Amino acid sequence: xxxxxxxxxxxxxxxxxxxxxxxxxxxxxxxxxxxxxxxxxxxxxxxxxxxxxxxxxxxxxxxxxxxxxxxxxxxxxxxxxxxxxxxxxxxxxxxxx
Length: 97
Fold this sequence. Notes:
The structure is a single chain. By secondary structure, the chain is α+β, with helices and mostly antiparallel strands. The chain has one domain. Helices cover about 20% and strands about 40% of the residues. The protein is built from one helix and six strands. It has one helix spanning about 75-90; strands at about 10-15, 20, 25-30, 40-45, 50-60, 65-75. It has a four-stranded antiparallel beta sheet with strand order 3-4-5-6. A hairpin with a 6-residue loop joins β5 and β6 (about 65-75).
């Protein structure tokens, strides 16, 4: 393996063997979107062994009305930390001290 080459971190079996998920992206359409504030698409990607979460929303360009997707990419670690602190804040909200 070359010095600058990333080591495979995540592998999965496809029945015929294993494949490497490093430097891959997967996007899914959301079928049960509860509101316009929720993403229409979500997914994950792996860049050099680091996992990221992707959220996408449909947009329409102002000038020509071109439809496109815009989104947010967040590391899985950041996403988990945000969920953890949001849960703690909601529990602490009712505490008088």
